[in-house]
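Lab notebook, design round three. We kept the backbone fixed and only want residue identities now. Task for the bench partner: fill in a sequence for the structure below.
Input C-alpha cells:
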C-alpha cells in the first residue's frame, strides 16, 4: 500500500476544514433536523429527508478527513530538498515542445489540485519528476502524447 503524503500546508487546510465541519456545519445541520422534526409526520417530510441527507454528507466528510489525518505521512519543510524533487517540492520546468515555463508543486494524492498546479506524486508528471535534479530532462505520456520537460528550478 503506497504512503499517503500530505504537506504541512495541506494538513493545516484539512484541520481547518474539520474544525469548520465539527463546530459550525454539524450544529447547523442538527438545527435543521430539529426544525424539520417539528413539522410532524417524518414519512412525508421532505425537509427532514434533506436534512438527514446533508447530515450524512457532513458526517462522511468528517470521518474521511479524520482518517486521512490519522494515516497521512506529514511532509514538513525540513523534509523538502532543494537538490532533489520530492513530495513538497515546488518545481519550475521548461516544456520543451512549447518552450514555456510552468511551475508545479508536488503533493500527495489527497492534496492534488490541477487548478493550483498541485500535482500528485502518483500522477504521470509527478512520478516522472520525483527523484530528479535541476538540469534533468523528463518525459511522460499523457492522453495528448509524450511530453518532455527540463527541470529549471527546485524550491
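Proposed sequence:
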Amino acid at each position: 500500500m503506497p504512503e499517503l503524503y500530505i504537506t504541512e500546508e495541506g494538513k493545516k487546510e484539512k484541520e481547518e476544514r474539520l474544525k469548520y465541519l465539527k463546530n459550525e456545519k454539524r450544529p447547523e445541520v442538527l438545527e435543521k433536523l430539529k426544525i424539520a422534526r417539528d413539522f410532524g409526520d417524518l414519512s412525508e417530510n421532505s425537509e427532514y429527508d434533506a436534512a438527514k441527507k446533508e447530515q450524512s454528507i457532513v458526517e462522511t466528510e468528517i470521518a474521511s478527513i479524520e482518517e486521512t489525518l490519522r494515516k497521512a505521512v506529514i511532509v514538513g519543510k525540513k523534509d523538502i530538498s532543494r537538490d532533489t524533487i520530492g513530495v513538497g517540492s515546488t518545481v519550475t520546468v521548461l516544456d520543451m515542445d512549447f518552450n514555456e515555463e510552468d511551475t508545479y508543486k508536488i503533493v500527495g494524492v489527497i492534496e492534488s489540485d490541477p487548478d493550483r498546479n498541485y500535482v500528485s506524486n502518483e500522477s504521470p508528471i509527478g512520478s516522472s519528476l520525483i527523484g530528479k535534479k535541476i538540469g534533468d530532462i523528463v518525459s511522460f505520456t499523457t492522453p495528448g502524447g509524450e511530453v518532455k520537460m527540463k527541470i529549471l528550478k527546485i524550491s
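Keep this in mind before ordering anything: Residues 80-154 form a domain with the Chitinase A; domain 3 fold (CATH 3.10.50.30).
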